[in-house]
Amino acid sequence: MDLPQNRFKAALKAGKQQIGLWNIIGGSMAPEALAGAGFDWVVIDTEHSPTDVPDVLTALQAMGNHPETSPVVRPAWNDPVTIKRILDFGAQTILVPYVQTREEAEAAVAATRYPPEGMRGVAGGTRASGYSRIKGYHAKANEQICLLVQVETVEALSRIEEIATTPGVDGVFIGPADLATSMGFPGDPNHPDVRKTIEAAITVLAALGVPAGILTLDRAFARRCIELGTTFTAVGTDIGLLVSAADALAADFKG
């Protein structure tokens, strides 16, 4: 049994645009259904959703029916214990929220790597190792792990270059909602000043050669971000799609 190759990480290295979607609805049915839609990646979110760490396992198993779509798991925090469990479940790409400094980025790298590169705990019989059927898993796993870190405050953006160039960081995700709040525009990620700041950050990351990512529900702005250089671009959330479709259907029949 061979170690699965991380298609998402390979695509980022090749500079190939990856279009994604956010999974907020808990359980295994939603991520399985989303994975069959044709997106390149789907985030299994445990930060702002009812999905808890054990639920990640069933979500990954469900998405396994659609290997063309890469699961990306967002832990609730930059916590090595939580990250260790998620990796043992078989996640190969981790999106760590609220990284403010290079030191925090280094901590995230350490949490996702086995020694000597990091501090990930070693266990046998995990799903990640094919229940011990992948020979040499622990010696090879690091190379297939993809670490994305989120910068989502004014302070983090002031340090974006040092965070982005931290060895082991594979991409930087800009969080519009928290950034807007940090800038004094709570609930308004589409404010012109916020958008200008996001555009500037994407330009910096593109110049550094570091993959940049974002989530925006505004299709025109998503295309603008792609033009500027994002290479992993999330364009919607499952709950957003559900609510908008439900509202439209109700309005169609009830006026």
What this model shows, in words?
This protein has helices spanning 7-13, 29-35, 53-63, 80-88, 102-112, 137-140, 154-158, 160-164, 176-182, 192-208, 219-228, 238-254, and strands at residues 18-23, 41-45, 70-74, 93-96, 146-151, 171-174, 212-215, 230-237. The chain is an alpha/beta fold and 255 residues long. It has an 8-stranded parallel β-sheet with strand order 3-2-1-8-7-6-5-4.
Radius of gyration: 18 Å
Give the overall pLDDT as a whole number: 98
Overall form:
globular
Category from helices, strands and their pairing: alpha/beta
SSE order: HEHEHEHEHHEHHEHHEHEH
Number of strands: 8
Physical arrangement of strands within the biggest beta sheet: 3-2-1-8-7-6-5-4
Oligomer: single chain
Main beta-sheet strand count, sense and barrel state:
8 strands, parallel
* Overall helicity: 40-55%
Uncertain regions: pLDDT < 50 for 5+ in a row? none
Summed up, the helix count is: 12
How big a fraction of the residues is strand? Answer: 15-25%
Span of the ends, CA to CA: 57 Å
Question: Layout of helices and strands, plus pairs?
Answer:
Elements: H1 7-13, E1 18-23, H2 29-35, E2 41-45, H3 53-63, E3 70-74, H4 80-88, E4 93-96, H5 102-112, H6 137-140, E5 146-151, H7 154-158, H8 160-164, E6 171-174, H9 176-182, H10 192-208, E7 212-215, H11 219-228, E8 230-237, H12 238-254
Give descriptors for this structure:
alpha/beta; 16% strand; 8 strands; 255 residues; 43% helix
Concise synopsis of the structure shown:
The chain contains twelve helices and eight strands.
